[in-house]
Specification:
Order of helices and strands: HHHHHHHHHHHHHHHHHHH
CATH superfamily: MFS general substrate transporter like domains
Largest sheet: none
Shape: globular
Helix content: over 70%
Strand content: under 5%
Number of domains: 1
Number of strands: 0
Distance between the termini: 7 Å
CATH class: Mainly Alpha
CATH architecture: Up-down Bundle
Length: about 400
Amino acid sequence: MAGAVSYRDVFRVPEFRAMWLAELQSVAGDQLARVALSVLVFADTGSAALTGLTYALTFVPSLLGGLFLTSLADRFPRRDLIMWIDGLRGCLILLVAIPAMPFWSLCVLVGIVSLLQPVFKSAQVALLPDVLGEERFSTGMAIRSITIQSAQMAGFAGGGLLIAVFNPYVVLVLDALTFFGSAILIRSRLAPRPAADRAAAAAAAPGVRRTRESAWGLLFADPGMRALTLMLWLMALVAVYEGMAAPYAALFGGGSVAVGLILAADPLGSVIGAFLFSKFVPEDRRPGLLGPLSIAAAAPVAVCLLRPNLVISIILFVIAGAFGTIVVMQTTTSMTLRLPDARRGQAIGVSNSGLTTATGVSPLFAGLLADRTNAATAIGWFGVAGTAAALLLALVWFRANRSAPVHTP
């Protein structure tokens, strides 16, 4: 049983170690870049809306990539896709790091990097069951969540410190180097594999339209899958404070270090939540807890309406990050093991693209609201909306899970 598999058992798989280390450094670099872009744009424009727009561009184009490109993760070898996408993203970030880059050019380059993200992620998650086997997959996903969030925490906090010492352009170059390092590691340590099932994938989705319809059909095939998908996407509302970190810190007189600490709060909570959940909650009970966990993830963000000080705000964001990551981890694990391998990549890509896009759109609208009110009020109202949606989804999930409970192998 997956519950009997230890972290040590998973780390004994050499290919998993390579995938883990490659993703670790790549994610840390991504967060360095997000801190750098937030500080750079807010310093140049002083606009919370433009800061939210720039942050959104690190997410929103993922919707197009998820809808039109993630079938590549089923049609072509997943290892090769991961390697080439990381190399290309490294080149694009090097261009972003050129000083005096026009704002529109920066937006285009960041948008292309975001466009490629769902292909990378769908290929990686779809490859993981092949590397680990189903019996180790659940534990591997828990390790992945913990370490990814640790890398995000280090990248966010380190990004604020590096910008204080150097400048945002140096941080962007470091991000590019992490992509190149990841590509080299995947190239040298992962064994080549054929496409998952090129013939079956082609028959199932011969065109772009059929690809989209196939993925959406898989995600909304039954009440259980629909509830899992919507709970996953709801977590975008919970993380709205990440894209508003710069204006929120400015509300309390904080600088780049405060921005980094706010951004580090979510991954810190994520590490704590993923570890405790994977260690102490039995696997057969995990799906049934998704409703209450979704409510617990959104409610702390609503407290921002009371405009708590910076320390209390960071504590609230840690709590939200802990419960939010548990929901994302469990929904992703259950969905992945339910999906057929020949179409797993595109379905995972579409589901994660929805989450990523909503994560980017939320700060954009929050920024527009903050320009009329303030960052704390805008974030608080998103927390209220998230809590209300979580209550509704908890009821839907309770009924779906009671009639047809989801059991992870």
